[in-house]
Specification:
The chain contains 10 helices and 13 strands. It is α+β, with helices and mostly antiparallel strands. It folds into 2 domains: 132 residues, 2-Layer Sandwich (Fructose-1,6-Bisphosphatase, Chain A, domain 1), CATH 3.30.540; 122 residues, D-Maltodextrin-Binding Protein, domain 2, CATH 3.40.190.
């Protein structure tokens, strides 16, 4: 790890991740005690509350205080100087619906650093358990041993009915029917749980860059297979940040390449994205 990324990694681990955890855990405790969540419905018809907005505001302030030369691409407050070499991608609260429904273990926070469009650092935070999944640049462990086939595996998808509409629903329904177990409503933690071994494969679509940027380096570092629905590896992929505001992405993340391939074989060729 070069000195520049070593410093940024320490900042992410020691400052940003704890800041997101404290912000969300404190506001969740207040919300559970009766505080107003301050929910607004955004243009994409998804909810955002005080926790989303305040956490991103705190993260943005801290980033620009420490690294004023960096850019930011945030879910709540948009893009700032995204043509720069280093750009932070923020999803302050991934799983707002589950947060509002008071379902701990089903929502988290995502922070990523892109260098020339490539995700190089990521942090996935569970603010309730305090768990943090984070990578070091260049880190890549071997895939886990003894990953089960799909028939014995635990698969996950946050919301099959909203993510897979129309003909594409047949795909996620086939995954559900062929998997040993199927879990929903986990949001980003459905991907993090791959590293824990409690989920074996997670399949989602209609994701924004803020949903996937932190996951890519974290999962790669843990030896996971991370591909799109065309079977193309996400690891090392550069993203066009101006275009990303209007792009959506699909992802299959699995604890082994064999399991990822078994899942993608269930996708009918005429449903493949162009």
């Amino acid at each position: 790890m070069n000195d520049c990324l070593k410093d940024i990694h320490a900042f992410l681990t020691g400052t940003l991740a704890p800041l997101a955890e404290r912000s969300l855990s404190d506001m969740y405790a207040g919300y559970c005690a009766g505080s107003d969540a301050g929910v607004e419905i955004k243009g994409d018809r998804t909810p955002a509350g005080i926790a989303d907005r305040e956490t991103e505001r705190l993260l943005r302030e801290e980033i620009l205080r420490r690294y004023p030369e960096h850019g930011i691409f945030g879910e709540e407050f948009g893009a700032y100087e995204t043509g720069r070499e280093f750009v932070w991608v923020l999803d302050p609260l991934d799983g707002t619906k589950e947060y509002l429904a008071k379902k701990p273990g089903c929502f988290g926070s995502l922070t990523a650093l892109l260098r020339n469009g490539v995700p190089v650092l990521g942090a996935v935070i569970d603010p309730i358990s305090g768990k943090l999944w984070i990578n070091r640049p260049g880190e890549c462990r071997q895939s886990p041993d003894n990953v089960p086939p799909l028939k014995d595996a635990t698969a996950a998808c946050t919301n099959p009915e909203s993510m897979f509409k129309g003909p594409s629903f047949a795909f996620i329904d086939a995954v559900r029917e062929n998997a040993g177990q199927f879990r929903t409503e986990l949001n980003c933690l459905g991907f993090a749980y791959l590293l824990e071994g409690t989920v074996d494969v997670t399949v989602e679509r209609d994701l924004g860059l803020h949903d996937i940027a932190a996951l890519i380096p974290v999962l790669q570092a843990g030896g996971m297979t991370v591909i799109d629905f065309n079977g193309r590896d996400y690891c090392g992929r550069a993203f066009d940040l101006p275009a990303a505001a209007n792009e959506t992405y699909a992802m299959i993340a699995a604890r082994s390449t064999a399991l990822a391939e078994e899942v993608i074989q269930l996708l009918e060729p005429d449903l493949l994205p162009s």
